[in-house]
Amino acid sequence: MTWPAAMRTAFLATVGRGRWWLAALASFLVRGGVVVLLPAIVALPTPAQVALHLDPSLTGDSPGDITPALVELAVRLLVSGALALLVSTTIGVRLEGDLVEAMAEQTTEPGSRRLRLPLGRAVLARLIVHLPTLVVVVVGGLALAGATYAELLAPSGAEALPVRVAARAPLAVTAIVATWLLGEAWGGIAIRRLAAGETLALAVGGGLVGVLRPSGLATLALTSLAVGVPLVGLWLASTQAYDRLWPLIVDRADSWAVTIALALLVATWASGLGLLGICLAFRAAAWTAEGLRTP
After folding, report:
1. Angle between the N-to-C axes of helices 119-129 and 68-107, in degrees from 0 to 180, rounded to the nearest 10
2. Helix-strand-coil percent breakdown of the chain, rounded to 5?
3. 55 CB-contact burial (10 Å; exposed 0-12 / middle 13-18 / buried 19+)
4. Suppose 130 and one of 7, 46, 183, 272 were both cysteines; which one would form an S-S bond, judging by CB atoms 3.0 to 4.6 Å apart?
5. pLDDT of 112 above 60
6. What is the Cα–Cα distance from 182 to 132, expressed in whole angstroms?
């Protein structure tokens, strides 16, 4: 099957399959998508607000002090973050596995073997392929921390703080996003190869080769665009709807005005998530077709 034929098959297989849309959306949200969407309607605390609520035992007597309470808090955050990552990855891969098994019957060539995803190895594969992402996040995080400090000392505009920080360190943001997208694509092919019966090492290695070949890079570009457009649209639209609702609540405006603004926010989220789910299902079908097709 040629690459254009595979992408056309993936698109046609996605049309009208609401269960696929919901499963793809749920897998995306569980595996970290909710972290991307929530800042659009959640006001992040300012540094002053964070400092006001900090326990004095964490800060010590002078700036830069490392107190036992601070070390304990850091350890707890690391452990709970690792557990949350493991649980969310397991749930997300389980949802993705059901989706891949169903999609393979519609997007691969007739006579192909039925897929069965081994959950444990699939979770491990997802974590392995994102090790480069972890490295880039740590290195890029240092640059973002410096940009945040500089922005707090000398604000460069009136936009939201994350936007101003990203503008100060565009290379770090670009590197983190690009590495994350590559890791998602790499893991997507790897778990499909696992489902086809390959070992963990072969699936991970073959996944990297698969995503770096010309058709893999084309699939990465196509699916990133397909998901990125509705994601950015939802983020911007929900931000605007929230910005109109919140002042009405704070000022205790007329109940009808609040109801209309709230309905607008809910409608924006519902329609945006619906469109995003369709595009995520297409992405999953496209990687299933690309990962298992015969070049």
Report:
1. 120
2. 80, 0, 20
3. exposed
4. 183
5. no
6. 10
What letters, b where the CB count within 10 A reaches 16 and e where it falls short, cover 62-89?
eeeeeeeebeeeeeeeeeeeeeeeeebb
At 133, the amino acid letter reads T
Own/partner pairs, 46-49, CB within 8 angstroms, 24+ separation:
46/161, 47/152
Q: How far is CA 25 from the centre of its chain?
A: 11
Residue 59's CB is within 10 A of a number of other CB atoms, namely 15
Q: Write the DSSP symbol of residue 44.
A: P
| Average confidence (pLDDT) over 208-214 | 90
- Report the alpha-carbon distance of residue 139 to residue 24 in Å, rounded: 30
Helix (H, G, I), strand (E, B) or coil at 109: coil
For the stretch 26-49, pLDDT in tens is 888 888 888 777 776 666 655 555
- Contact (CB, 8 A) for 242 and 40: yes
Count CB-CB contacts under 10 A for residue 268.
21
Task: Tell me: pLDDT of 222 over 90.
Answer: yes
CA angle 134, 141, 146 (to 5 degrees): 165
Report the C-alpha gap between 182 and 193 in whole angstroms: 17
Q: What tokens were used for 151?
A: 């922005």
Share of the chain above pLDDT 70, in %: 82
Q: Which residues of 154-184 are buried (b: 16+ CB within 10 A; e: fewer)?
A: eeeeeeeeeebbbebbeebbebbeebbbbbb
